[in-house]
TrEMBL record:
Residues 133-239 form the Fe2OG dioxygenase domain. One of its GO terms (cellular component) is nucleoplasm. Its cofactor is Fe(2+). Interacts with PCNA homotrimer; this interaction is enhanced during the S-phase of the cell cycle. Interacts with nucleolar proteins NCL, UBTF and NPM1. Interacts with XRCC5-XRCC6 heterodimer. This is DNA oxidative demethylase ALKBH2. It catalyses: a 3,N(4)-etheno-2'-deoxycytidine in double-stranded DNA + 2-oxoglutarate + O2 + H2O = a 2'-deoxycytidine in double-stranded DNA + glyoxal + succinate + CO2; an N(3)-methyl-2'-deoxycytidine in single-stranded DNA + 2-oxoglutarate + O2 = a 2'-deoxycytidine in single-stranded DNA + formaldehyde + succinate + CO2 + H(+); a 3,N(4)-etheno-2'-deoxycytidine in single-stranded DNA + 2-oxoglutarate + O2 + H2O = a 2'-deoxycytidine in single-stranded DNA + glyoxal + succinate + CO2; a methylated nucleobase within DNA + 2-oxoglutarate + O2 = a nucleobase within DNA + formaldehyde + succinate + CO2. InterPro entries: AlkB-like, AlkB-like_sf, ALKBH2, Oxoglu/Fe-dep_dioxygenase_dom.
Amino acid sequence: MDLFVVKTKRKRADSQSESSGSKKFKSYEKSECNVIDFKKFRLENLSCDYGILYSKREADNLLKECEKILCYNEGKLAKICLFGKWHNIPRKQVAHGDEGLSYKFSGNSIPARPWLPLLENIRDDITRQTGYKFNFVLINRYKDGSDYMGEHKDDEKDLEADHPIASLSLGQARDFIFKHQDSRGKNSTRRDIPPLKLVLQHGGLLMMNYPTNSYWYHSLPCRKKLFNVRINMTFRKMVVK
Ligand SMILES: O=C(O)CCC(=O)C(=O)O
Ligand SMILES: [Fe+2]
């Protein structure tokens, strides 16, 4: 992790308003939580916390188990629609979650498969550590550094907008880049906001708090010289209709 601001131990659930930006947006419950060491990243409209949730041994075991039991989407569910054209996604993907939930993005809708005990255990570990509850997990598997995820925001309507997204990484450490929406491209109006680069490690947990996903894009760029598998799980709170 290169750029960094303050190191802190979050002690109690009622510190919730600090991580989500403003109390007035709170629309969910947050329970008591434990304490892993989170590093806090605070920039203009960005609030993220990063810490190591699992030791190397625990993370090795989880990765091995994931490789054994997870099955990934195929066919249309493994494609995205960009500017009217369908493309294979440059990685594998699957979602699990509460019954009836699905996740719509880039022209596709990913239905949640039922929870698996392994995923429930990880979800509950994250809830114990952060106090936040999740009803859906999107899993991305990058076979090596040539698999990637392009710049996007996780700001779909079916996500509870002010709820944090918890991102657990297993396997190959990879760069993860945040860019402020007004700092991107030729017509950028905010050249004064530099990107934020994190390195997401094996066993690392990144909390993306409100309002990060309303203002900042994130991506996992290609890294052709990396050859190991990485699995990322983003635990989310979807709106239940
Ligand atoms: O693999 C990652 O770390 C990124 C995952 C992500 O951004 C997503 O699932 O929306
Ligand atoms: Fe994302």
